[in-house]
Amino acid sequence: PVLRSEIASLDIDQGAVAQVIDSYGASRLLSFDRDARTGAPTVEVAHEALLTAWGRLRRWIDDAREDLRTERRLATAAREWVDAERDASFLAGGSRLHQFETWRSSSRISLTPDQRDFVDASLAERDRRRAEEEARQAHARDLERRSVRRLRALAAVLAAGVLLAAGLTVFAFDQRGRAEREGR
After folding, report:
1. Spatial strand order in the sheet of 30-34
2. CA distance 136 to 161
3. How many Cβ atoms are within 10 Å of 47's Cβ, its own excluded?
4. Is 0.85 topped by the overall pTM?
5. Which of 91, 71, 103 shows the shortest CA–CA distance to 6?
6. Residues 10 and 113 sit within 8 Å (Cβ to Cβ)
């Protein structure tokens, strides 16, 4: 079953779509119902025979089978995201987002506005996280450079202190020797 609102949101000639749906519905090739969860109107292929007996439709479906699977996964993910009030934790990421992004650029299947918004929001979130990670890494590099400078400065101060202590030790031994000579 496909929500009528989902069909209506596609970037295609809605007059032609409505005419086809009405014609197929009158011929009882499509059935109309309501979504059990939301009560929204749905459209569904009425007979499995339609999918197998109509050669051209079967070839279209066979050619687009993987695209249809990906679109269904995207539709499910987008619906969950919308149901969760567009919570960022429901956005796609990683290889799943890469798959949706690649598929969207190569597929001829139209997306609903919610699906487009879901992919766009997922891409924006990915870019935001990358920018945060780059900023964090730049900050870490900056802190590391500061630490290295401080360690070098500390090493220089300690080296100067050791040289001063060595000089004072030599001076003290020299004074002691001089004092012993003068005492004798």
Report:
1. 2-3, 41-45, 30-34
2. 37
3. 12
4. no
5. 71
6. no
